[in-house]
Amino acid sequence: MSLIKCTQMNSRILLNMCKYDSPRFLTREYSYKTIKRPDPRTLKMPTPESAPNLIEIIKEKIRLNGPITVAEYMHIVTTNPTEGYYMKKEVIGEAGDFITSPEISQLFGEILGIWFYAETQKMCEAKPLQIVELGPGKATLLIDMLRVLNKIGYTSHDLSIHLVEISSTMQSIQANRLCVSHRPVEIDMPHNHEGETLSGIKVYWYNDLKKVPQNFSWYVAHEFFDVLPIHKFEKTEKGWRELLIDIDDTGKLLYRLSGNETQAVKMLIRPPLDSGDRTELEISARSLGVARQLAKRVDEYGGLALIADYGHEGEKGDTFRAFQKHQIVDPLETPGKSDLTADVDFSQLRIAASKNPGEENYALVVGPVKQKDFLEQCQGELRLQVLIDAAKKDEDKEKIKSAYEMLVDPNKMGERFKFMAFYPSTMASILAKYPPLGFSNLKP
């Protein structure tokens, strides 16, 4: 239709409308209605009895939208508000599905506290100080670190605690162990819970690292990155393809390779990650983002970041698995009842966090080093002897010794677990003169 005809038609419509005196002909028959928005504070989660089964949620999503990525699957399984793995039960310890180093020996957390303090002395006094832990578990690591700081002379005026935790169940466990009092806060606050320790130290909980105040901080990420969602890729004759999760004719979950390049293939597989003769890759976009956040915070506002996790330096390609009652099980069986995890690729964290010449500065990255080497360089054996000497019973002495051996034994946790640290880029000359504790055989 020409512009002239369209204009003439609009003019006739306006003239016809003006023939009527009553305004009711100018009122739209269908219009928007004003509604009252519900108050978020009054909304409640469905009860476990009324919530849909997690496996049915996953299957329905696949039926509606097609196969899902492993990253989507991990996200649903771990964070579903009512049925997610970390949302509904205590999972750490002998009675849970796995056990962590802080739960094995108090020595682990004490050494980390000493490491942070010693390395901070190379730059400043570190008062006031924020301790930020990502995925604090049962808060055992933090409790052991605070014991060290109390001995050194830190008080409630010198530090505050900031915990990044998405699970209300784990948050409750942490609050009950750390605080003498704690409470939820208004929804418009950056944190969603707060409390105080017996000595008056303020404790705050967040659901995202981005909400934590940007101040001088010690950042701790122990067994945090291994549970972040990963994308899995395989190299075929047609190039890289993504491993997806689908359902078969019987309703059972299974893996399926994508026929074409997915968006994740286009966005994530870039040099040098796809270099060499690798035929399998696991990449966690979330891990890369968190690593960069930590590096930028350390570089811009000061502090240190320490990552401790089991992982590798790019030599592995298929590490996705599940743990239930300390045993490896099929990740696609009984979702929500087992711990989904993948080894951390420390080479990818280094790429995401490192300071690159000619580009925006992030941080100086050291490591990874094996847990055995880190603990021994931090005088773990000396601390072990102090604990043994303080024990009154031979049985207790043996338990302390056995726990330490589990941490450093190459066939147990000594080599599988590794440490990596982020320093401000301005500390290059200082670290050249005073090598990083625990990483003394490496250069930043």
Automatic annotation (TrEMBL):
<keyword id="KW-0808">Transferase</keyword>
<dbReference type="GO" id="GO:0005739">
    <property type="term" value="C:mitochondrion"/>
</dbReference>
<dbReference type="Pfam" id="PF02636">
    <property type="entry name" value="Methyltransf_28"/>
</dbReference>
<dbReference type="GO" id="GO:0032981">
    <property type="term" value="P:mitochondrial respiratory chain complex I assembly"/>
</dbReference>
<dbReference type="GO" id="GO:0035243">
    <property type="term" value="F:protein-arginine omega-N symmetric methyltransferase activity"/>
</dbReference>
<keyword id="KW-0496">Mitochondrion</keyword>
<dbReference type="InterPro" id="IPR029063">
    <property type="entry name" value="SAM-dependent_MTases_sf"/>
</dbReference>
<dbReference type="InterPro" id="IPR038375">
    <property type="entry name" value="NDUFAF7_sf"/>
</dbReference>
<keyword id="KW-0489">Methyltransferase</keyword>
<comment type="function">
    <text>Arginine methyltransferase involved in the assembly or stability of mitochondrial NADH:ubiquinone oxidoreductase complex (complex I).</text>
</comment>
<protein>
    <recommendedName>
        <fullName>Protein arginine methyltransferase NDUFAF7</fullName>
        <ecNumber>2.1.1.320</ecNumber>
    </recommendedName>
</protein>
<dbReference type="GO" id="GO:0032259">
    <property type="term" value="P:methylation"/>
</dbReference>
<comment type="similarity">
    <text>Belongs to the NDUFAF7 family.</text>
</comment>
<dbReference type="InterPro" id="IPR003788">
    <property type="entry name" value="NDUFAF7"/>
</dbReference>
